[in-house]
Structure prediction request, 440 residues.
Amino acid sequence: MVERLLVLGGDPAGVAAATTVRRLRGDVEIVVAESGNHTDWAGEGVPQLVGGLVDGLERLSGLRPSDLRDRLRIDIRCGHSASGIDLLNREVEIDDDEHERTYRLRFDRLLLAGWGRTPVPATLADAPVIDPSRPEDALALTMGLAGGARHAVVVGAGLPGLELAEALAQRGVRVTIVDPAAHLLDDFDADLVKPVSRALEQQGIGVQVSAEIRGWEEGRVATDRGLLPEGLVVAGAYPMPANQVAGDAGVVLGPTGGAVVDARFRTSAEGVWAVGRAAEVRHRLSSAPLVAGAGLVAGHGQAAGTEIAGGYQRVPWPLDLQAGRVGGYDVARVGLTAGQAEGAGYEVRTSTVAGSARAAWYPGARPLQVRLVAERGSGLILGVQAVGVEGAVRAAETVTLAIDQQVDVGSLARLETPGDPALGARPDPLRAAAIELATT
Prediction:
């Protein structure tokens, strides 16, 4: 009997794993069961789709179902979703929506993948919330705009929610952001992101933080400040795992809802792996549970596929890099904030430097503020937050490499930088922060 790999979910992580197995093992039968009609779809591009920078939903797809079927000999089954897993008999119960039937499919190896679900408060369980991380919902959102939607409530004030809110506002929609968090972008320190908050308000975007979302009343979102205008309701947080079927089968799930995996993406169940938004991984510095970001899921899928095919590809745990552009500002962070580091048991020092990514006197120089966190004593870099019109993402990428290579603040302070004032200040805010920590 031919060995069969069954992949539950045609998201980028599941597709990367399946295609890696096909590349390494031509003799394995590969079946991908995808609940929707799209595969390898970049949900993080939805703000650009909504804002009109991307023309059409299909532009966000990498490998389409026809590519998987015709070019790679992968049996892709769209509209098929798992409703049960029998680990003892090595079978999955599959619901086929198109033909309104349920069947059982044998597997030798099983990979949990999928789009996950964007969380919303339980009080909105009855609301028609659009989850733009899922292709079909993203299509519904674009159709709502084409139908003349005039108001929208975005539930979530993290980077995904703010980027969506801004894209909707650019389409002429009156937007209100609601979130129980104390401030916008609560993964960042509040003082650093005040310019972003002001920029959104100047665009006419309503902001309700520290908000109690009370429910769905009369076709509108109700908060402790009253009823919001009738219109679209859009989930604006990072997607989280939706693994209840695996959990019911006995796969151990962590506090995020993802299947707990080891460094090889193996779950607690023999012959079952999990990747992407189906997996719970650990922060490299704090060991806190988290779900890998969009920039890592394909790499994790490739590593899992290599493991399933009999090889090994080392992938370090993530550093929780987050980056986006909101209100004319680049915002980026990686590693740990001072509060997170102290919560993980580190003794830390921080330096905050405001400047610009280019020489301050250079025409067109734009503001950039950086907050660098390092371990007291060793000087090892633990994280950075950066907010600016330009340069923030480069600062986060530099610190990502510094943490990966266990660079201390002294080494970062001595880093050679371009002499051209159009390309970099001397020192730029990141290096200036490192110099302060290394010399005081």
Summary: The radius of gyration is 23 Å.
